[in-house]
Specification:
Number of strands: 5
Strand order of the largest sheet: 3-2-1-4-5
Oligomer: single chain
Radius of gyration: 18 Å
Structural class: alpha/beta
Distance between the termini: 72 Å
Length: 128
């Protein structure tokens, strides 16, 4: 008879200021709220919020997911955050508004979308 060990919950220190990472792709949006050391306090995505298929890439789905993650962080004690947005998705602005509306003051917004300096090598010329 093997005993099942209960997993110990990870203790993360929550400061009043933190970081919010919004990853907005064409298919989904993922919001991670971290402390200043980069440890994740709460996270949410449009898929976790119950949206499926093309509904995941809508501003409304981003708003619901961001509000869900921000509420958990606000209850833990976070009051202000710097927001880093990455990707070309539809719900970038509405996610920032939802975080601000949930009680976390947005102090800075920075776009960290990767931009190619010269890009990939183009395909060879077509011969007919």
């Amino acid at each position: 008879m093997a005993k099942t060990k209960k997993a110990k919950k990870r203790n993360v220190r929550v400061d009043s200021a933190g970081l919010v990472y919004i990853q907005a792709s064409f298919n989904n949006i993922i919001i991670s709220i971290c402390n200043n050391q980069g440890q994740v306090i709460s996270w949410a995505s449009a898929g976790k919020a119950g949206f499926r298929g093309s509904k995941k890439n809508t501003p409304y789905a981003a708003q619901i997911a961001a509000a869900d993650a921000a509420q958990v962080a606000n209850d833990a004690g976070m009051r202000s955050a710097e927001v880093f947005v990455k990707g070309p998705g539809a719900g970038r602005e509405s996610a920032i508004r939802a975080i601000d509306g949930a009680g976390i003051k947005v102090t800075k917004i920075k776009d960290i979308t990767p931009i190619p300096h010269n890009g990939c090598r183009p395909p060879k010329k077509r011969r007919v």
